[in-house]
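Notes from hallway chat w/ T.B., transcribed later so I don't forget. T.B. wanted the structure written out for a chain they're using in a teaching module, and asked if we could keep both sequence and structure tokens in one place. Agreed to drop them here.
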Amino acid sequence: MSPDKVVSKRQERREQIRRQEKFSRILTIGLIIVGAIFIVFAFIYPSLKPVLDIVTVQAKPRPNVDRNTMGDPNAPIELVVYSDFQCPYCERFFDETEPLLVQYYISTGKVRFVYRSAGNWVSDNIARATGATPKTESRDAALAAYCAADQGKFWEMHDALFANNMDVEDRGSFSDRRLSAIAESVNLNMDDFQDCYDSGKYDEQVDQDIADALAVEIGGTPFFVMTYTVNGEKRSRTIDGAQPFNTFQVELEAALNEINAQQ
């Protein structure tokens, strides 16, 4: 073989190698770009997804509202509910029993009613023992409700949160975007709401709610603690679960009888 032909084949081989290397580089760069686009999309897409339809509700009438309380502050009985905006039993109480309590006991000055958050009590109790996952959206919903209270609309937000729970815990019912949309549906000042929510202003209040719920040995939500005073002695009763109205009626009347007997 002539020297010229040998050189030509070497050049052809080198050129072939260069083409392969160039193709490999282009392919690698292309894969990196596609991967980067996929990663960016994974982070951005949740914020681009349309918010599912938000149900606008007419808040239920409540007497003597003061932030997360309603009723006469001097009522002889205080009834505290430890609740969770993701809890179907809490929603059942809200729909079926609470209106009757308002009608017969709260509006009549016999009971002062207080809502407190215990949605992620599991994170402070059961999770430590079982490794269960805390319900973070319950906490976020409670923070949103307390922020709404700054604008005098705790109960409007309370009602809207229950109406917009999608019945699957921690699957987006109360994502940050949906909470903002729910807040907008009750006509909050959105700049003030967002500043409050983003700052974690009510983190300590939610923590205290959970601590107090554990102190009364909550076993689930809703959980009710009734307190009243007889002859200077503070007494309490508890009601566990979304019991029917007549269960509350029996307990409240018994407490009222004890109070009236001292007079």
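Follow-up for T.B.: Confidence is low (pLDDT under 50) at residues 45-50. Might be a good example for the class.
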